[in-house]
Specification:
The complex is a heterodimer of chains A (130) and B (106). Chain A is α+β, with helices and mostly antiparallel strands and 130 residues long. Chain A is built from 2 helices and 5 strands. Classes of the chains: A alpha+beta (130), B mainly alpha (106). The interface between A and B is medium-sized, with 18 and 18 residues.
């Protein structure tokens, strides 16, 4: 009987992956202005690595971190500036993150549509027995 | 004229072995008995129970905020609904078939 609902399982795995992706993107976007001193690492962007499952669907295998060096920016008025007046800013392009956000949201919506169509299909099959 | 059909010696045609088949001359039919269907129905209901338990658990988690993936709950709820409707449909058909047979004039 479980085989009949594998569509729901696959769509569910996709929604899980896209939700993790949205979490990572939200984290990156909220930390786009997080400045650190040159002694520490910059804020590292999170990138979700997804892989197709053998049983159908997708899974998150890894969350890779972006560069720890970031961008060294000259800002002598910043409280964390070092002796030369440099601070580290994260190496995140806000435009890239925002467009990824739209892609992740559309991916999630597409999986939700799959679930809805699967429900309609099951209801149609049940109609035969009525 | 000799017929073109090859003559098979009658001993090679599948003999009906009266001695070994205890039921007599007729071969026994495959055992499609009522107990197999009842087992299937019981299994169906056990599975339905499990699916509904899972949906209930997830609904409690979702209500208290412990659930990370909301879609898990909605998918489990869908599965429970569809499985319930399927079990009801199977039961209806079984009862209908039973009544149909009971109505037969002997």
């Amino acid at each position: 009987m479980m085989g009949a609902f594998s569509v729901l399982d696959i769509a569910g795995s996709s929604m899980g992956m896209h939700q993790s992706w949205l979490d990572a993107l939200a984290n990156n976007i909220s930390n786009v202005n997080t400045t650190t001193s040159t002694d520490d690492d910059a804020f590292q962007a999170e990138m979700v690595v997804a892989r197709a499952r053998t049983s159908g669907g997708v899974e998150v295998t890894d969350i890779e971190k972006g560069s720890a060096e970031g961008r060294v920016v000259h800002d002598p008025d910043h409280p964390l500036a070092d002796a030369d007046g440099y601070v580290r800013r994260p190496d995140i392009e806000l435009s890239d993150q925002m467009s990824d956000l739209i892609i992740a949201q559309r991916g999630y919506q597409a999986s939700v549509q799959v679930t809805k169509y699967a429900q309609d299909t099951y209801n149609a099959a049940l109609q035969i027995a009525r | 004229m000799a017929a073109n059909v090859p003559l098979v010696p009658s001993a090679d045609v599948n003999p009906v072995d009266f001695a070994s088949s205890g039921a007599g001359a007729f071969p026994t039919s495959p055992a499609v008995s009522g107990t197999e269907f009842a087992d299937m129905l019981a299994e169906n209901i056990d599975h339905l129970d499990a699916v509904q338990d899972k949906a209930d658990q997830l609904s409690v988690q979702a209500a208290t905020g412990d659930l990370d993936a909301l879609h898990d709950y909605t998918i489990a709820a869908t599965e429970a609904t569809v499985t319930t409707q399927l079990t009801v449909a199977v039961r209806n058909k079984a009862v209908e078939a039973f009544n149909e047979i009971m109505r037969m004039q002997v």
